[in-house]
Design goal:
The complex is a heterodimer. Chain A is about 70% helix and about 5% strand. By secondary structure, chain A is mostly helical. In chain A, helix 1 (about 35-65) runs antiparallel to helix 2 and helix 1 (about 35-65) packs across helix 3 (about 80-105). The longest helix of chain A is centred in the middle third of the chain and has 32 residues, at about 35-65. Chain A is elongated, with a radius of gyration of 22 Å. The termini of chain A are far apart. Chain B has one domain (about 25-130): Fumarate reductase/succinate dehydrogenase, transmembrane subunit (3 helical TM bundles of succinate and fumarate reductases, Up-down Bundle), CATH 1.20.1300.10. Chain B contains 6 helices and no strands. Chain B has helices spanning about 1-5, 15-20, 25-55, 60-65, 70-100, 100-130. In chain B, helix 3 packs across helix 5 (about 70-100) and helix 5 packs antiparallel against helix 6. The longest helix of chain B has 30 residues, at about 25-55. Chain B is elongated and about 65 Å long. Classes of the chains: A mainly alpha, B mainly alpha.
Amino acid sequence: MTDTREALMVARTSDGRTVRRPLSPHLQVYRPQITSAMSILHRITGVALSCGTLLLVWFLIAAVESDAAYARVAWFIGSPVGYLLMFGWSVALWYHFCNGIRHIFWDFGMGLELPQVHASGKAVLVATAVLTVLTWVVFAVVR
Amino acid sequence: MTEKATSPAIMRSMLGRARGLGSARSGLHHWWAQRLTAFALVPLVLWFIYSAIRLSGMKRGDVINWAVDPVVGTLLVALVLALFHHMRLGLQVVIEDYIHDERPRMVWLLVMKGVTGLLGLAALVAVIKLAI
C-alpha cells in the first residue's frame, strides 16, 4: 500500500471484516441513461446559474450606482446576446428548480423506485419546457 | 487480526474513522444546509422570476421605488443570502469531485469561496443600499 489515500478505501462489513470499498464504474464504460444524464445536467445548470449571478450582481450594483451605469446594464440585457443569455438562464433555472424539487422528494424517501425515478425525470423535462415557454409568453404579454 | 498488522489504515478505530471523516462532521452540516437553502429558494425563486418579468424594461427610478419597499427588501436579502450560500455549497462539491490533487483542489476551493463570497457581499450591499 503505497498511496496513503488507500486508507480512505478501507471499510468494514457488518460482521466486522475489513474490505476495500467498491468503486463505481467510470463514466467511459457507463451507458448513458436518463438518470445519469439528468444528474449531470443538474450540475451543469447549477454551474451555469452560478455564472449567471454575475449578471444579477451587475444589475443590482448598477441600480445603486447611477443612471448611466443602469443604462449600460439595461442595454446589455436588452441586446441580442442579453436575450440569448436570459433565455438560457430561464431554461437552466427552471430545470434546476424542477429537478431540485425532485431531489427534495428523494430526500424524504419518496419516489425512489426506478420506474418512479424515470417517470419523475420525464416530468421534470416536460415541466422545464412548459415553464420556460410560459415564462416567455407572460414576458411577451406583460411588455 | 493478521490484516491489522499489514494494513496501516486499520490503526484507526471505527469511532475514530466516523469522527475524523467529513461525512460524520461538517459533511452532515453541508448536506443539511444545501437542502435548507434549496427549500428556501423554492418560493424565493418563484418570486424572483415574477419580479424579473415585472422589472424588465423599467427605468432605474422604478427599480429603486420597487426595492425600497420593506417587504421587497427583506425578500431580496433573503434571496441573496440563500442563493449565494446554496451556490457556494454546490460549487464546492463540484470542485471536490473533479479536482483530485490536494493542492490545486485547495487553491480552487479558496478562489471559488473568495470570489463568490465577494460577489454575494456585493449583492447584499447593493440590495441594502437600494432598500434605504
